[in-house]
């Protein structure tokens, strides 16, 4: 093990940390503002990668795929937050969406179980689905919804449910194969620093994360919106009291978190690949970032991402058999000693 | 005893009789229903022991653990490693493995509990998630011991006079373990210790002021849950004949939590019912269609949004609903949310 080894591993660790920052910072902000532990966050990452693949397939433009994928997933995030993560407002739409989903599922089940009944005809399929949806709507609109705002466990399980739905939908849309996002050829070269070859793409990842980090920091520290977000993180009730629209803040933050995770999916897809199961692989890593850094803290997320990126790379290189243990054990220790993370506020 | 207490006791007796009858019916019906149902019931019952251990923490102590698969996993891996590397536990020594599985689950929980118990609320959730990931990481990466991603394939089940490779015999064994676990946990939660756990769930501070060592109570409950998790793992390994990191993965812990919430937390039987429903749906649908995970996702979403006390709470909800409708003054929404805050015991 010479100097070269340490330089290459450190560089890989930092660039992986850059990717983790994109995933973790959004998760951290969502927790900080809404106190929601969002287990769909890995799905946002995966969907970002898959949507980018579709955009690249359709237009051939990698640069275009970045904003399109990120914005599309941000929309998904907003829909989820508005419809399912708050119990007041949009009741009719929420019930309608659930009923429609159930209707389609029931129709699918009927056509799988009794194919002679529906056959291949899509008209019959739609008819069964519509009838089932209406029935489900009538039934569900008579059942009061459980308020989940103050129930962490229910929030966790709800977002897990959505993670499963996203996972299955991704499998149905994009198939089960491992796919690669190919960045433009200019990025696939390497640069030589002090006799060591460093892939240019990883340099780009670091630059991207730094740029996004700076922009986020500017938004949080210098704008009115950012001040309102920080106030909500510190004390949501008090923030509401002084006239901050925390409802809008939480929608904004949820969209931002989903946006960043999807961006991570596009950027990370180039060297991780995009495949079913990636969502639940990234999720615990994102949590490690958030926990080490402290929930709701942007600077903490940066430090946490760097720490996890380095620990992951050196762990795999130095002690491969216990490499994940060396990643999660420090997370346990930090939580045990300072539950709010290294930089989290009480 | 006043009248309401007496009524409660008789209703308790009715429930015990109902559960006993249901168990006997199960023991009679399942073996006569074909190998698919036998295997399904065996798997569900082994997993239900894990789900009930989650309920001991969630429903009775108020701790939502996201890492219960860890104890399940060490029990399963212990069984698989002993069986394949040392050829231990394939005869009468199976019973030693059962004891070892319980002990290793409890011991791991005793270590993990030192870190986890002092955290509260969402931090408890996070720290148990991290602890679960530690165990998963070892299972996934420690190739020489665990076989890494491929896991460990076991050859056959124990034979100690009773040949467990017979599916029906094995079902009866797992059934017995399940019934005994249910009974033991029931006795536990009805004991003074179980009552103080419920007190901690409702108002930890008040229990502290009354002089209870709430940390120790929670710690002991955590260890007991770990022991039952280990037991479930031993049975799980022999049920499938295969142990892989899937056993310890985060979603296994989350599935167990969902099963408890679906059936109704704080009821023990609810955990078993939730397990049966999720397993039934999963195994039946996955033979039929490739998209069964939509159904699992839908079960999650519907449970969370529409079942405040799980399936076991539906009778109570309906009764309240009827009373509320008669008065026409109370908003059903309010009744449901009030119910959430003060759970009836």
Using brief descriptors, characterize the structure shown.
heterodimer, A: 346 residues, mainly alpha, two-stranded antiparallel ribbon, 14 helices, 76% helix, globular, B: 345 residues, two-stranded antiparallel sheet, 15 helices, 4 strands, 2% strand, disordered C terminus
Give the secondary structure arrangement, pairings included.
The complex is a heterodimer of chains A (346) and B (345).
Chain A: H1 3-34, H2 41-59, H3 62-84, H4 91-113, H5 115-118, H6 122-140, H7 152-174, E1 190-193, E2 196-199, H8 200-222, H9 224-234, H10 236-241, H11 246-272, H12 278-293, H13 298-318, H14 323-337
Antiparallel strand pairs in A: 1-2
Chain B: H1 3-29, H2 34-61, H3 69-85, H4 94-116, H5 121-141, H6 143-146, E1 152-153, E2 159-160, E3 162-163, H7 167-190, H8 192-202, H9 204-209, H10 214-240, E4 242-243, H11 250-263, H12 269-288, H13 292-306, H14 314-327, H15 332-341
Antiparallel strand pairs in B: 1-4, 2-3
What does this structure look like?
The complex is a heterodimer of chains A (346) and B (345). Chain A has 346 residues and is mainly alpha-helical. In chain A, 76% of the residues lie in helices and 2% in strands. Chain A has 14 helices and 2 strands; from the N terminus they run H-H-H-H-H-H-H-E-E-H-H-H-H-H-H-H. Chain A has helices spanning 3-34, 41-59, 62-84, 91-113, 115-118, 122-140, 152-174, 200-222, 224-234, 236-241, 246-272, 278-293, 298-318, 323-337; strands at residues 190-193, 196-199. Chain A has a two-stranded antiparallel sheet with strand order 1-2. In chain A, a hairpin with a 2-residue loop joins strand 1 and strand 2 (196-199). Chain A is globular, with a radius of gyration of 22 Å. The mean pLDDT of chain A is 87. Chain B is mainly α and 345 residues long. Chain B is built from 15 helices and 4 strands. Chain B has helices spanning 3-29, 34-61, 69-85, 94-116, 121-141, 143-146, 167-190, 192-202, 204-209, 214-240, 250-263, 269-288, 292-306, 314-327, 332-341, and strands at residues 152-153, 159-160, 162-163, 242-243. In chain B, strand 2 (159-160) and strand 3 form a beta hairpin. In chain B, helix 3 (69-85) packs parallel to helix 5, helix 4 (94-116) packs across helix 10 and helix 8 (192-202) packs across helix 10. The longest helix of chain B is centred in the first third of the chain and has 28 residues, at 34-61. The two termini of chain B are 17 Å apart. Residues 328-345 of chain B have low confidence and may be disordered. Chains A and B meet through helix 4, helix 7, helix 12 and helix 14 of A and helix 5, helix 11, helix 13 and helix 15 of B.
């Amino acid at each position: 093990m010479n100097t070269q080894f340490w330089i290459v591993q450190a560089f890989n660790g930092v660039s992986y940390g850059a990717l983790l920052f994109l995933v973790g910072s959004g998760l951290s902000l969502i927790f900080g503002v809404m106190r929601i532990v969002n287990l769909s966050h890995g799905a946002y990452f995966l969907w970002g990668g898959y949507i980018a693949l579709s955009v690249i397939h359709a237009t051939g433009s990698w640069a275009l795929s970045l904003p399109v994928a990120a914005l599309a997933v941000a929309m998904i995030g907003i829909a989820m937050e508005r419809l399912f993560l708050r119990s007041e407002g949009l009741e009719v739409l929420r019930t309608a969406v659930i009923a429609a989903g159930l209707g389609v599922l029931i129709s699918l089940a009927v056509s799988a179980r009794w194919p002679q009944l529906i056959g291949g005809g899509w008209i019959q399929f739609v008819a069964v689905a519509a009838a089932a949806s209406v029935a489900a709507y009538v039934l569900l609109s008579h059942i009061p919804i459980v308020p989940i705002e103050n129930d962490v466990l229910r929030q966790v399980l709800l977002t897990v449910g959505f993670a499963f739905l996203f996972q299955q939908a991704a499998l149905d849309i994009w198939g089960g194969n491992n796919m690669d996002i190919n960045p433009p050829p200019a990025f696939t070269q390497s640069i030589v620093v002090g006799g060591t070859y460093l892939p240019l793409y990883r340099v780009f990842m670091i630059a991207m994360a730094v740029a996004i980090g700076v922009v986020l920091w500017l938004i949080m520290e210098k704008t009115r919106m950012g001040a309102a977000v920080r106030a909500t993180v510190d004390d949501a009730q008090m923030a509401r009291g002084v006239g901050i629209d925390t409802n809008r803040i939480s929608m904004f933050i949820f969209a931002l978190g989903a946006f960043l995770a999807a961006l991570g999916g596009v950027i990370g897809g180039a060297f991780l690949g995009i495949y079913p199961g990636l969502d639940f692989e990234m999720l615990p890593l994102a949590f490690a970032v958030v926990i080490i850094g402290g929930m709701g803290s942007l600077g903490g997320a940066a430090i946490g991402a760097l720490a996890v990126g380095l620990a992951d790379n050196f762990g795999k290189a130095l002690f491969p058999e216990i490499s994940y243990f060396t990643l999660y054990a420090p997370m346990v220790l930090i939580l045990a000693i300072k539950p709010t993370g290294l930089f989290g506020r009480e | 005893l006043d009248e309401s207490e007496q009524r409660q006791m008789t209703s308790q007796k009715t429930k015990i009789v109902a559960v006993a009858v249901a168990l006997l019916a199960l023991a009679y019906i399942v073996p006569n229903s074909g190998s698919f149902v036998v295997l399904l019931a065996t798997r569900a019952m082994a997993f239900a022991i894990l789900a009930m251990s989650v309920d001991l923490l969630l429903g009775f102590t108020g701790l939502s653990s996201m890492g219960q698969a860890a104890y399940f996993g060490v029990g399963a891996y212990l069984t698989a490693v002993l069986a394949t590397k040392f050829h231990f536990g394939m005869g009468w020594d199976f019973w030693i493995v059962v004891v070892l599985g319980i002990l290793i689950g409890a011991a791991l929980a005793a270590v993990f509990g030192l870190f986890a118990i002092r955290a509260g609320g969402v931090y408890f959730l996070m720290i148990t998630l991290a602890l679960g990931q530690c165990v998963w990481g070892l299972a996934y990466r420690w190739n020489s011991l665990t076989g890494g991603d491929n896991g460990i394939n076991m050859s056959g089940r124990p034979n100690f006079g009773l040949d467990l490779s017979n599916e029906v015999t094995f079902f009866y064994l797992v059934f017995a373990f399940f019934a005994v676990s249910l009974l033991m946990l029931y006795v536990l939660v009805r004991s003074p210790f179980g009552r103080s756990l419920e007190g901690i769930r409702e108002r930890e501070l008040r229990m502290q002021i009354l002089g209870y060592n709430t940390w120790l109570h929670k710690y002991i409950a955590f260890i007991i849950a770990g022991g039952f998790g280990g037991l479930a793992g031993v049975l799980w390994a022999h049920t499938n004949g295969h142990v892989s990191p899937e056993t310890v993965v985060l979603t296994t812990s989350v599935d167990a939590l969902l099963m408890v919430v679906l059936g109704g937390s704080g009821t023990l039987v609810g955990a078993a019912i939730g397990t049966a429903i999720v397993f039934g749906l999963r195994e039946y649908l996955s033979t039929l269609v490739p998209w069964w995970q939509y159904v699992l996702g839908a079960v999650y979403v519907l449970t969370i949004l529409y079942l405040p006390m799980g399936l076991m709470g539906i009778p109570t909800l309906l009764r309240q609903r009827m009373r509320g409708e008669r008065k026409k003054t109370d908003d059903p929404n309010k009744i449901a949310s009030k119910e959430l805050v003060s759970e009836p015991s």
